[in-house]
Write a structure and sequence with these properties.
The protein has about 160 residues and is an alpha+beta fold. Helices cover about 45% and strands about 20% of the residues. Helix 4 (about 95-110) crosses helix 6 (about 125-140) and helix 6 (about 125-140) runs parallel beside helix 8 (about 150-160).
Amino acid sequence: MVTKSYTVTNTAKGIRGLNAVSGYVELDPGERREGVELSDAEYASAERTGYFEFGNAKAGSSADQEQEDALPGTHALLDKLAKDEGVTFPEGTRTVAEKQAAITAARDAAAADPGGAKPDELDNMSDDDLRSTAAALSGKSADEVASLDRDALLKLARGE
């Protein structure tokens, strides 16, 4: 059986799985997992579903260079990374995708101007992205910001 190692991202809105050589692999929405070894037949089947994005890697090697800088796709690795970078997850953070978003938002906030994110960056975000960004920047839970309107989210994200 011919196999290759892939970086797999679940692009669907629900939990999805595929049959790796090592066994069944389940991915949360937005979760990325590196080093998933698939047979050619399973790769073709999974690709046809449209639920996954694949980054190819050579057999026995690490993922493509662009994926080496990507956030890890497991809770344990994200928890360690957050601890190392001083990131506190908002209350209610449960999924890998939520943890990745919180770390990304914290990194973006740290790289932004001392006065905070530029208004056009926040203004151009979708409501869902703005909600998770405001929660990450303020340390509030997803539930605490769920009912806020866009203007309140913008003020919260800007620290006003």
